[in-house]
Design a protein that fits this description.
By secondary structure, the protein is of the alpha/beta class. It has one domain: Rossmann fold (3-Layer(aba) Sandwich), CATH 3.40.50.1820. The protein contains ten helices and eight strands.
């Protein structure tokens, strides 16, 4: 069944009166776990329509790469290499979900090429922490069971969990459409503790875009969650809030997400 989530009623987007008032930016968009570079296709198309340059590099273990024995350094290095090989400068480096950890490490590798960092419901890890440590104990146990049951050290999300945690605003058809397109996620990078001392010395401006109906992380608990639990680690940062769950609006409301990313990245 070919479900087209983008046919949902679009949200009103507050475009300025004249396209000339939009500041052209260069975006590098980094996807998260259980996704590949195509995750950004609809949002990237909207950003390009607004006049921006957009890149969404794929990283090892994802897309068409069958190798699941990857490390976090391989992922962040591949994004940094893409930026350098394409001669990109003055970029808005934006990450979603697990992509926030890749943004953190990539920023350490190419600090002179960055204009701003944007985290969209994305991990902001403490120095020496892994992404897995940010989940409450029950969720950690659940992911460890899924990892142990795989034959190649990956984690595949069962549909009931994906539907309620990742796509809670989607219709059942839309949630199935999205779930059918995910692949098992290489587990190792999720459990690696990252040295982030250099990241926390960077002076690059930062923004956090918080999608308020995201159910992947516990809502309203002081020790967990996207905002303010992780966002506050950025120090001084620009905060934007928007309706949206973890995955759905990128497909159903790409114009809206593109505009909010622009607001997060502009001067």
């Amino acid at each position: 069944m070919n479900i087209q989530p983008h046919r949902n009623q679009p949200m009103p987007v507050p475009f300025p009166p004249s396209p000339g008032k939009i500041q052209p930016l260069t975006f590098v968009l980094v996807h998260g776990a259980w996704a590949d570079a195509s995750f950004w296709d609809r949002v990237a198309a909207e950003l390009r329509r607004m006049g921006h340059a957009v890149h969404s590099p794929e990283y090892p273990g994802h897309g068409g790469d069958p190798n699941t024995n990857v490390t976090h350094s391989m992922l962040s290095r591949s994004v940094a290499d893409y930026i350098v090989s394409h001669g990109l400068r003055d970029i808005v480096l934006a990450g979603h979900s697990f992509g926030g950890t890749i943004v953190q490490k990539t920023a350490e590798l190419v600090p002179d090429r960055l204009k701003r960092l944007v985290f969209m419901n994305a991990f902001v890890l403490k120095d020496g922490e892994s992404a897995s440590e940010e989940f409450p104990p029950q969720a950690q146990s659940f992911f460890e069971q899924l990892r142990a049951s795989s034959s190649n050290d990956t984690i595949m999300l069962p549909f009931p969990f994906y539907r309620d945690a990742f796509a809670n605003l989607a219709s059942l058809e839309q949630a199935r459409w999205m779930h059918e397109r995910i692949q098992p996620e290489p587990a190792k990078p999720l459990y690696e503790k990252l040295d982030l001392k250099t990241f926390y010395k960077l002076t690059t401006p930062k923004s956090y875009l918080y999608l308020t109906e995201d159910n992947v992380m516990p809502q309203g608990q002081p020790n967990y969650g996207w905002h303010p639990h992780m966002s506050s680690r950025l120090g001084l940062f620009r905060l934007l809030k928007s309706p949206g769950d973890h995955m759905t609006f990128v497909y159903t409301h790409p114009q809206w997400i593109a505009w909010r990313l622009y607001e997060a990245g502009r001067d």
